[in-house]
Amino acid sequence: MNLLYISISGNTKSFAQRMKELSIKKHNEAIDNPIIQIKEITDNSVLRQESEPFVVCVPTYLEGGNGIDNGDQEILTEAMRDYIAYKDNATLCLGIIGSGNKNFNLQYCLTAKQYAEQFSVPFLADFELRGLPNEIEQIYSILSSLSSN
User: Fold this and answer.
1) Are 112 and 84 in contact (CB under 8 A)?
2) For 32, 38, 46, 84, which has the most beta carbons within 10 A of its beta carbon?
3) Which CATH number covers residue 127?
4) Strand ranges (DSSP E) for the chain?
5) Residue 9's Cα: distance from chain center in Å?
6) Largest Cα span, the chain
7) From the centroid of its chain, how far is CA 56?
8) Domain tally for the chain?
């Protein structure tokens, strides 16, 4: 299972690295458990056609406001949107995981929800900031079920 992510503050990167570590541990316990391969997308990433299914993890950075009738314009994470939209990548995207800060109320994970809508894929899960261990376990379980389909 491939997890593509973009990280601005380092929170999403920490989550992705801990997801990979957990997946290796789970795989060592039972070989049928998938290993999560992670790939960071940045503003400098070369757009390329993916060849295997993947899940995207994206943080939320928006232009002010309340996230509904104003302040719903994505900033800083457009490189991931462009990457998914490149060639046939969107057809391989199995879903979106969102991260954010619950203090931002309606804006919490709004970028991930917008991606899910734009690319017609499920919004799979969310976590706050770097993600708690139980959130990582829960999301790994979701990713495991996707890889067995």
Assistant:
1) no
2) 84
3) 3.40.50.360
4) 2-5, 37-40, 54-59, 93-100, 123-128
5) 15
6) 48
7) 3
8) 1
Contact 96, 112 (CB under 8 A): yes
Domain with 133, as residue range(s), is: 2-147
- pLDDT by residue for the chain (149 residues), tens digit each? 999 999 988 999 999 999 999 999 999 999 999 999 999 999 999 999 999 999 999 998 766 665 566 666 655 688 999 999 999 999 999 999 999 888 777 778 888 998 999 999 999 999 988 899 999 999 999 999 998 76
Query: Which residues make beta-bridge pairs with 55?
Result: 3, 95
CB atoms within 10 A of CB 78: 13
Contacts of 103 (CB under 8 A, 6+ apart): none
